[in-house]
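Here is the promised in-class demo. Please do not try to memorize the tokens; focus on the logic of going from shape to residues.
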């Protein structure tokens, strides 16, 4: 099925008023298409994709990401591991009119840390705190800071804080939705943009190494870096962010190895499968799980047990387990670089036949026998 046919099918299957997509490779938009009531320059609310701009602004401002702040470090706030509650205190999602910045700052005293720092808990409120940090360090409101630091330098002329014609109207099940007024809460998801601008932004974003180290794992197929998330789709590691707000959904996904990605924007709240559609449009890069492991690593792959718990190891161009990524330090010696037991050594013990007989990770033995005892 051709790309235009895919869009028409999505429009029909999900009852979308419109959909706009753009594909990029090596820094250039290589294909863009709309279906339904939209033009290539039609703006959509991109919601939480805004968070990627907040993260990039902190890098531009050279903020110390490990600086202690009131609600945790910038690194914790960016990766949703500060423990801060999800939303600003109050019933703003009932009125759809968020308060001004001054009231938001005043109501931070009511905010709770609902989990200990280090635990993953998605938080829009964390990005309001980060928005205040950007404004403070830039010496100007968050909206102006993002415009000067990022939008203008990258030529994102159709990315704005308020919708500018032509812009889409949001729908839920064929019902025209009210317009969300973000007020002082814009840092968590207030930008409007086009598929082309989002694709161009993705082409820049994928080169920011600091943002793309997984800090919080929401599951084997999903993890969060700093302002970006990572998903695994059919063996591919794709980064980016999704956005959802009243009447709109959006997805930005890119393959850092292929230097390619896709942006998909629509003005409907309900469509399922938008992530899969975006992933299908990302130009092919190498499939990491198709790579053959080095001979000395092949014997490590598969299932091992420790304390009755199964741990699966695989090769994706690097050694990974269900919840960790390793770097090789020498023969039969690896170190957990991301995820579970970060910083701890994984050591391979071989038997007389030269095959791995045991793994020792963070001081615990791992064996092939599911029922072994110490």
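The designed amino acids, position by position:
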């Amino acid at each position: 099925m051709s790309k235009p046919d895919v869009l028409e099918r999505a429009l029909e299957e999900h009852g979308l008023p419109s959909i706009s997509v753009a594909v990029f490779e090596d820094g250039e938009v290589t294909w863009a298409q709309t279906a339904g009531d939209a033009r290539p320059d039609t703006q959509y609310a991109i919601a939480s994709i805004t968070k990627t701009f907040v993260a990039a602004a902190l890098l531009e401002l050279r903020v110390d990401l490990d600086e202690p702040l009131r609600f945790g470090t910038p690194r914790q706030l960016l990766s949703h591991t500060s423990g801060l509650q999800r939303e600003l205190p109050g019933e703003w999602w009932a009125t759809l009119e968020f308060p001004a910045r001054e009231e938001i700052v005043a109501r931070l005293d009511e905010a709770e840390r609902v989990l200990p720092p280090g635990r993953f808990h998605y938080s829009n409120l964390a990005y309001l705190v980060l928005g205040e940090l950007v404004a403070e360090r830039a010496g100007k409101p968050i909206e102006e800071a993002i415009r000067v630091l990022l939008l203008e330098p990258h030529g994102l002329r159709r990315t704005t804080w308020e919708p500018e014609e032509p812009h889409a109207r949001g729908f839920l099940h064929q019902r025209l939705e009210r317009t969300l007024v973000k007020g002082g809460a814009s840092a968590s998801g207030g930008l409007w943009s086009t598929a082309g601008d989002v694709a161009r932004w993705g082409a820049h974003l994928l080169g920011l190494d600091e943002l793309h180290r997984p800090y919080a794992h929401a599951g084997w197929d999903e993890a969060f870096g700093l302002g970006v998330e990572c998903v695994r789709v059919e063996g591919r590691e794709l980064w980016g962010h999704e956005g959802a707000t009243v009447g709109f959904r959006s997805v930005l996904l890119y393959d850092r190895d292929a230097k390619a990605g896709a942006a998909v924007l629509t003005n409907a709240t309900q469509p399922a499968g938008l992530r899969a559609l975006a992933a299908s449009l990302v130009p092919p890069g190498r499939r990491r799980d198709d790579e053959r492991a080095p001979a000395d690593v092949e014997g490590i792959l598969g299932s091992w047990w420790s304390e009755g718990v199964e741990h699966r190891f695989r090769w994706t161009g690097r050694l990974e387990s269900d919840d960790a990524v390793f770097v090789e330090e020498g023969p039969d010696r690896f170190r957990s670089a991301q995820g579970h037991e970060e910083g701890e050594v994984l050591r391979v013990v071989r038997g007389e036949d030269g095959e791995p007989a045991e793994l020792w990770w963070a001081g615990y033995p791992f064996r092939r026998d599911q029922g072994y005892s110490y």
